[in-house]
Structure prediction request, 331 residues.
Amino acid sequence: MSDQQLSLPGLVSESFGSPGEWVWAADESEEEFVASEFVHATVMKDLVVEALAPKNGSVYIDATLGGGGHAEAILEAAPGAMIVAFDRDSAAIQASSERLVAYRDQVIFIQSPFGNLLEELRARSIKSVDGLCADLGVSSPQIDDAARGMSFRREGPLDMRMDANDGETALELIGRLSDEELADIIFRYGDERRSRRIARSIKRALDADELATTLDLRRAVVRAVGPARVGGVDPATRTFQALRIAVNDEIGQLRSLLEQLPDALAPGATAAIISFHSTEDRLVKQAFASRTMWQPRWKKPRVASDEEVSGNPRARSAKLRAAARLARDEG
Ligand SMILES: C[S@@+](CC[C@H](N)C(=O)[O-])C[C@H]1O[C@@H](n2cnc3c(N)ncnc32)[C@H](O)[C@@H]1O
Prediction:
């Protein structure tokens, strides 16, 4: 995983509580986090709309509602479409429901992980849908909110959960894992070569009762590897990313979504998935490689234009893959 691939999704809320002002931005792995510079909208919005080709009367899933940018773009392209919108974060659901108020009768908001896709659809008697988009990762309000503990720039509890009411916090996870298991996570999800040293230092801090906050965690990483920035990236970036991915079971969630997709989509329906690092993109690529199940929309993943990247550095590591569900007897 390159340092560029470490740039993760982000939304900046310059004025929190006013969803209309949410704009996408680079996350904290960027050199500097300056909200006003990042006024670009949702990543690859036009390409997602092009892939889904939304039609009035059809039903689309936005698996990662966030600030509602993709959902809104779908509804602008097809004002008579329906959206089934998932987000595990109640704050994202709240903000988007305000942003999409003009379409309130056309959006079903579901506060649940997208790994529960079929269960949630069946609970609402939805047999299949006409398209799905997913824009993986976290949003900047999640990073910006110190209480969520995702940022090494802001002091907060070591939590890191996207849904603050679900599952283990980062601190609980660190307490449960052995040194080796913790090192494996830091290596696998952060692509961090110095994972063993870092894991030992983190566990030592925990044993000494010196690990309660995000800044404590950053200090433990710096104690292990020094304060130098590598490739312009803070030494704690990879460890924070790895723990966040583990706490939220992000890879397990994606696997589960990909497994359920064929049963959720009607024949001919397209799935469009934006990923931000190589592990995610590899899983999406593998899933869409089944020629009996999927017709890829493009040969190669689409990336953001230079223009989009210059307005929104976060977009530079984004990869969009899309594929249409074949009818069961095709292929
Ligand atoms: C990158 S943001 C999406 C932004 C959105 N596409 C937009 O244009 O405003 C990702 C969102 O997905 C949510 N999310 C991440 N993993 C999820 C999962 N497994 N289930 C449901 N929501 C998830 C996060 O809480 C976050 O709000």
